[in-house]
Q: What sequence folds into this?
């Protein structure tokens, strides 16, 4: 029997919680195991419920979603977090990525994407709605600020691999990377596979998160 995906919902609007709960529980292997209306209770609620997935609003009373995520990051991350927000502010998006959020959805498209997001994140994938992904990549590509010291001092990747991870994170194609670094497309692909294996990362958005968390690209 397939185990159910245990989901906890944290939002200060009961109407939204009720709507999401009803939608999520139309999927046979989803189970909404708990809810929180107040940011100060989310960590304890999730630990008690043993949730696999936390769907977290940014605008929570008393303790906002960023602070809640920091608490999870600093103590223990017992579940995977998907941020649900009305805001597509790049500063907020970058902050939650650094704090290991696995997904970011805007509320105006949550009904269309939430089921797909839960399934993807549960399977160790990243899920960011299209408009959020576009904002992330456009900003980096238009104005990349590279941290040269972090590039040189990276403990896992070689300087060449760091160059490539940054260019992949900026959504350069293999051909574009090969021309920019004066290496063959085959070499680029070999580096890409090695990077993914070393970091256990499976997506481009995961590479962006790694670049942000390790200060390879300055926010």
A:
């Amino acid at each position: 029997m397939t185990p159910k995906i245990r989901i906890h919902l944290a939002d200060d609007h009961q109407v939204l919680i009720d709507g999401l709960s009803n939608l999520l529980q139309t999927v046979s292997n989803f189970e909404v195991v708990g809810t929180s209306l107040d940011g100060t209770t989310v960590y304890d609620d999730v630990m008690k419920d043993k949730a696999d997935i936390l769907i977290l609003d940014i605008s929570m009373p008393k303790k906002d979603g960023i602070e809640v995520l920091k608490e999870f990051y600093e103590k223990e991350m017992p579940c995977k977090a998907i941020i649900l927000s009305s805001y597509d502010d790049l500063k907020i998006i970058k902050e939650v990525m650094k704090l290991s959020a696995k997904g970011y959805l805007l509320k105006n498209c949550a009904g269309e994407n939430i089921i797909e997001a839960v399934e993807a994140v549960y399977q160790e994938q990243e899920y960011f709605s299209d408009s959020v992904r576009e904002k992330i990549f456009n900003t980096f590509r238009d104005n990349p600020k590279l941290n040269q010291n972090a590039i040189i001092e990276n403990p896992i990747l070689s300087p060449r691999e760091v160059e490539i991870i940054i260019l992949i994170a900026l959504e350069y194609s293999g051909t574009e990377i090969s021309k920019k670094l004066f290496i063959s497309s085959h070499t680029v692909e070999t580096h890409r596979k090695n990077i993914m294996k070393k970091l256990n990362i499976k997506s481009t958005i995961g590479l962006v998160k790694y670049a942000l968390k390790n200060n390879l690209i300055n926010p």
In short: The mean pLDDT is 84.
